[in-house]
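Write out the 3D structure for:
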Amino acid sequence: MQKSLSVALCALTLGLSGGAVQAHVTLEQPEAAAGSTYRAVLRVGHGCDGQATQTLRVTLPEGFYNAKPMPKAGWSLKVEQGPYATPFDNHGKEMTSGAREISWSGGELADDWYDEFIIRGTVGPEVAPGTVLYFAAVQECAKGTADWTDVSGRSDVENPAPGVTVTMASVGMDHGHNHGAPAHDAQAAGHGHDHAAGHDAAMGAAPGAALRLGDLTLSGPFSRATPPGAPVAGGFVTIANGGAEDDRLISVRADEVTDRAEIHEMAMQDAVMTMRQMPEGLPIPAGATVELKPGGYHMMFFDLKQPLAEGQIVKVTLEFEKAGEIELPLVVGPRNAGAGGDKAMKGGEHAGH
């Protein structure tokens, strides 16, 4: 349901935004940290002047390494190899070449349909923050083409190439792909398994910084200050699964502040907002982002040993079914901390406990 809603909202945005109407091929995620795994989801919202798209060709940018496309049922997949301008250190093995152009062909994506084409790779750690990596794309139809190949970055062009802006590497992010340096990357794009699950956690992170654990990226962790005598508190974080396999958050521990931490969900039942424990854990589907937030999924801390004070850092250990464990520093904000419009989590929400 969440993915379907996301697709519907994307389609609505394409219909209402003037810039988006021109950019028929766009990237779902507009930013990626240097040295991180990036899942380039190319969104195709229209064909060629009413015609169905039968082929999509994508030229990969310099600085995007070890790229691997996701096959699509009913489409033929072709990967053209070529040299890298800068060699890439993949777990100690130097790569001087890799995928340079990827194409899906033989399909039939009608003009009034929407679909996504996915390529997974690694943004080079040497790519400077602020750099835009362009994925020049061309749609081929029965008669004619639609190209999205302009890499000038200008907003007034009719055929802008989809681009991702590179940001600074997150604190705690591995940098195993520095050229000539030992490889410490916990998970490289397309690698079949994680050689160092929990590596980022061991390295530590600044409070509030994004952390990586295998295919998972955890960002924006926080909690809320509690009044004196309050027995419970909540914990929140956004978890993105950039891998090809589903995972699951199966347990939470916060030994500094409680001996009982659980994964919970708030939902409407018979027109009444209720809260329930999720004893089987919280699914983190492949390619999806799951948000633990006030009024929805969240971590629940019972029988607090002491009140949570604004500015405090609470260390929480999250255990995932496949990715393993990671220690997450929750920044304690004010009592109404959270996204705009969220209801403040106060004792009334958990009166049943």
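The CA atoms of residues 117 and 228 lie 52 Å apart.
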